Automatic annotation (TrEMBL):
Keywords: Cell membrane, Copper, Glycoprotein, GPI-anchor, Lipoprotein, Membrane, Metal-binding, Signal. Residues 43-157, 169-322, 407-542 form the Plastocyanin-like domain. InterPro entries: Cu-oxidase-like_N (IPR011707), Cu-oxidase_2nd (IPR001117), Cu-oxidase_C (IPR011706), Cu-oxidase_fam (IPR045087), Cupredoxin (IPR008972). It comes from Solanum pinnatisectum. Belongs to the multicopper oxidase family. It is a lipid-anchor; GPI-anchor. GO terms for molecular function: copper ion binding; oxidoreductase activity. GO terms for cellular component: plasma membrane; side of membrane. The lineage of its organism: Eukaryota, Viridiplantae, Streptophyta, Embryophyta, Tracheophyta. It holds the Pfam family Cu-oxidase_3. It comes from the Eukaryota. This is Monocopper oxidase-like protein SKU5. It is found in: Cell membrane. Its cofactor is Cu cation. Residues 1-32 form the signal peptide.
Length: 600
């Protein structure tokens, strides 16, 4: 009888499973076009000692840095996030354009934060994108404690890449680092003080190799990347730090630049490249040396007194499988131009768009002739060194220090709330004393905007725009004027999401406002961003349609003036629900759960 009961139970379970699979396959027919990729992120604190001092860092799934998200053009990406921090959390997918999907951008202007101990699921499509990007926590200065990781968007198989397929793909996260955690650094800024010099530079979350016994203490864990001789690797490098521009180089190896934040570049060899905060590049590196020893991988601070900043240098090891010994001797030299930024600017100007290569689509990148489009709106956006605003040390753009509203801008629009923000961001710097306001740019849907970023600070800045790739058409020292347009590159200026603006200089960008939503324009320097150096661009289609913006997701969180609408059970099941796609995601979860039960 026991055997018969067991057989009957097994038969019943298998019948249920087969039925479930049939339902799942039927559901899947509706989504045969673009695949789904699923990720589970548990965000928590762990103890680590990257510079030899024990400290609390933010990990993803227990790892610091977090895992690299490997997806393909047009994939639907579903990320279930479990917030195990003791404070609110948002994850931002820097460089992912979130086409039609501003709700998923993970910034306080578009999303209410995920409370501690809560789940929330992001769901977005990497539509018509390829390239190298990264994600990070966007609230409360948390990026200074980690929580970041790489995003790789691969070409579809039918779209050719403009180089031979590399042997392997390597992701490297570089960035300045403090041995104080983000809460301590945050308190320093709120007290009106500078953060001071960083304690070091990390490479993939690890401290420097002990290349010098005096400078580097014993016992530091360092990054080692093992490679095969004679092979070519695609190495993707992102500066995920706080405020330090870094020069990246690999001893005795050329860096053949191939891509910058989603655009294939004209391929050029560099012995080293300046990578500013928030920027990402990918290089093709041939392992063509004799492997008489290992080789240094170096990320060192730029535009500083090298003798005083020796400890602020990241050093890893490139190790051939047939290496005959350890790396030794001095590090490869950085550019020798502490006070002259001309070399670095000329290097930035040399990065050009590969107009004949296919990007995410089969047509050449250069088929979009940005230089022949009439500009419809112009903004000259000027920063200044930190200054006192309403009794607080703040940073500004055009004389306005941005205040994030308690109700996100996009949510306020959805519910037609008044007084949450002002559509009055000035087209040029204001005269008079600076002020603290929630002032944003009123962008015109399908307009073509020119933005001149004028850096009147004494330090390097990088600026990022969510929702778009913009064209970097010019940069120079001094004040921008109308005559500066005569120097613009209107043919092969690189399309990217983050650009450098040198101190006492300007950078001009052009952007096609074809993506409806509320999009962040900010400095990537984390300290200046935290103190107010940002705004948003609001782009609205006067004839709302799902073709230009997807509906508010069913699992949207509520806060601020709409906080009373939020119920705990609204997110008790961390499934992102957006039309029929939610059913597909749900069926996937149910199917996996059923298979797990059957085989227990």
């Amino acid at each position: 009888m026991a055997s018969s009961s067991s057989s009957s139970s097994s038969s019943s379970t298998w019948s249920f499973l087969i039925t479930l699979i049939c339902i799942f396959l039927f559901m899947g027919l509706s989504f045969a076009g673009d695949p789904f990729k699923f990720f589970n992120f548990e965000v928590s604190y762990i103890d680590a000692s990257p510079l030899g001092v024990s400290q609390q860092v933010i990990a993803i799934n227990g790892k610091f840095p977090g895992p690299t998200m490997n997806v393909t053009t047009n994939d639907n990406v579903v990320v279930n996030v479990r917030n195990k921090l003791d404070e609110e959390l948002l994850l931002h997918w820097s460089g992912v354009q979130q086409k039609r999907s501003t709700w998923q951008d993970g910034l306080p202007g578009t999303n209410c934060p995920i409370p501690p101990k809560w789940n929330w699921t992001y769901q977005f499509q990497v539509k018509d994108q390829i390239g190298s990007f990264f994600y990070f926590p966007s609230l409360h200065f948390q990026r200074a404690s980690g929580g970041f990781g790489g995003i790789t968007i691969n070409n579809r198989e039918e779209i050719p890449i403009p180089f031979d397929f590399p042997y392997d793909d390597i992701t490297i996260m570089i960035g300045d680092w403090y041995t104080r955690n983000h809460t301590s650094l945050r308190s320093t800024l709120l007290a009106g003080k500078d953060l001071g010099k960083p304690d070091g530079v990390l490479i993939n979350g690890k401290g420097p190799y002990r290349y010098n016994d005096t400078i580097v203490p014993d016992g530091i864990d360092y990054e080692t990347i093992t490679v095969h001789p004679g092979k070519t690797y695609r190495i993707r490098v992102s500066n995920v730090g706080i405020s330090t521009s870094l020069n990246f180089r690999i001893q005795n190896h050329n860096l053949l630049l191939a891509e910058a934040e989603g655009s294939y570049t004209v391929q050029q060899n560099y012995t080293s490249l300046d990578i500013h905060v928030g920027q990402s590049y990918s290089f093709l590196v041939s392992m063509d040396q004799n492997a008489s020893s290992d080789y240094y991988i170096v990320a060192s601070a730029r535009f500083v007194n090298q003798s005083q900043w020796q400890r602020v240098t990241g050093v890893g090891i490139l190790k051939y499988t047939n290496s005959k010994g350890k790396a030794h001797g001095p590090l490869p030299e950085p550019p020798q131009d502490e006070f002259d930024k001309t070399f670095s600017m000329n290097q930035a100007r040399s990065i050009r768009w590969n107009v004949t290569a296919s990007g995410a689509r089969p047509n050449p990148q250069g088929s979009f002739r940005y230089g022949s489009i009439n500009v419809t709106e112009i903004y000259v956006v000027q920063n200044m060194p930190p200054q006192m605003v309403d009794g607080k040390r703040r940073t500004t753009l055009n004389g306005i220090s941005f205040v994030n509203p308690k109700t996100p801008i996009r949510l306020a629009d959805q519910y037609k709330l008044k007084g949450v923000y002002k559509l009055d961001f000035p087209t040029a710097p204001l005269t008079g004393p600076p002020k603290m306001e929630t002032s944003i740019i009123n962008g015109t849907y399908r307009g073509f905007m020119e933005v001149i970023l004028q850096n009147n600070d004494t330090k390097m800045h990088t600026y990022h725009m969510s929702g778009y790739a913009f064209f970097v058409v010019g940069m120079d020292f001094g004040m921008w004027s109308n005559n500066s347009r005569g120097t613009y590159n209107k043919w092969d200026g690189i399309a990217r999401t983050t650009t450098q603006v040198f101190p006492g200089a300007w950078t001009a960008i052009l952007v096609s406002l074809d993506n409806v939503g509320v999009w962040n324009l900010r400095t990537e320097n984390l300290d200046s961003w935290f103190l107010g150096q940002e705004t948003y661009i609001r782009v609205v289609n006067s004839e709302p349609t799902n073709k230009t913006e997807l509906p508010m997701p069913d699992n949207a969180l509520f806060c601020g003036q709409l906080g009373k609408l939020q119920k705990p059970q609204d997110i008790s099941y961390a499934t992102s629900m957006r039309g029929n796609e939610s059913k597909f995601s749900f069926m996937m979860m149910v199917l996996v759960s059923a298979i797990f039960v059957v085989f227990q």
